[in-house]
Amino acid sequence: MSTNADHPDVIALPPFLYLAAFLVVLLLRWIRPWPILPPHFVPWAGIGMLIAGLAIGIPGRLALRSAGTSVKPTQPTTAIVTRGTYRLTRNPLYVGLTCFFIGLTLAFDTGWGFVVLLPLLVVMHFGVVRREERYLEAKFGEEYRQYRGRVRRYL
What we know:
Layout: H1 14-31, H2 42-66, H3 92-107, H4 112-140, H5 142-150
Helix pairs in contact: 1-3, 1-4, 2-3, 3-4
């Protein structure tokens, strides 16, 4: 692969997709509130999912850094990472972002978050994850196929 094409060609950076989706949630919440939880339960449910998202995502990011490969899908991947949370899921950063998104949805007590989450996950799956998988298989071949056979895509 040439250096210019040595990346998975994702449609957008995942954190920006999640941020844009949550801004849509906040706009919808402002237009028409849609509470889903009893008021005394709201902060605890949200905090739990926020912590879960961080607990999955941060170790994934650190594992990429320690392997010397970029976390940015616009940069070349230099290694297949199989340590830490990458033993449980091939996409711990995206699972972590999803948990964090759900945590914000619960903390803001809005059903809109779950409505917006579904198309967000479809965009992530086809526009990011599947593109990354094709790239990794083309670049690393059998090493990636073996990893893919051992570890689930999500959870």
